[in-house]
Amino acid sequence: SDKKVISLVCERACDLSSVCDADGAVKDIDGLHVVKYPCSGMIQAGMVETALKSGAAGVIVTGCQIGDCYFREGNKMIRERLLGERLPTLKKNTDRRRIMALWLARPQVQRFMSEAKEFVGFVRGLTD
After folding, report:
1. CA gap 6, 60 in Å, rounded
2. Under a CB-based contact definition with an 8 Å cutoff, are residues 19 and 108 in contact?
3. Bridge pairing between strands 58-63 and 5-10
4. What is the pTM of this model?
5. Which of 23, 33, 120, 127 maximizes the CB count within 10 A of its CB?
6. What's the CA gap between 41 and 76, in Å, rounded?
7. Measured between alpha carbons, how far is 7 from 25 in angstroms, rounded to an integer?
8. Rounded to the nearest 10 degrees, what angle do helices 74-83 and 45-53 cross at?
9. How far apart are the C-alpha atoms of 49 and 82, rounded to whole Å?
10. What is the mean pLDDT of residues 93-113?
11. How far is CA 32 from CA 28, 46, 113, 128, in A?
12. Which of 101, 123, 81 is nearest to 8 (CA)?
């Protein structure tokens, strides 16, 4: 399947400017698109669900390393929402196999690329 995968990214986490074009498409991973936020704490569970309902094959939430948030605890907040430990959480029927979270420092671009490539292959292989 050629369904898009969306990555919601804290602009202070790994610096993806070298691997994205002007529209946010990741150059070496077909169909992966990056949407930047000032902080991953601004990313809500509902945004992840909307992307999946709108036809995305998967969603990668990318924030700073845990314990290293520029805005103190934004990454911890979205992590807890995704884990169901903080409201608002993901709806019960959300396919969690289609969601991945990465907590990366600015220079960890290659780690993002390898994890994202693997995840994109995985979610495109899911049949249900």
Report:
1. 6
2. no
3. parallel
4. 0.96
5. 120
6. 8
7. 10
8. 60
9. 11
10. 97
11. 9, 20, 10, 20
12. 101
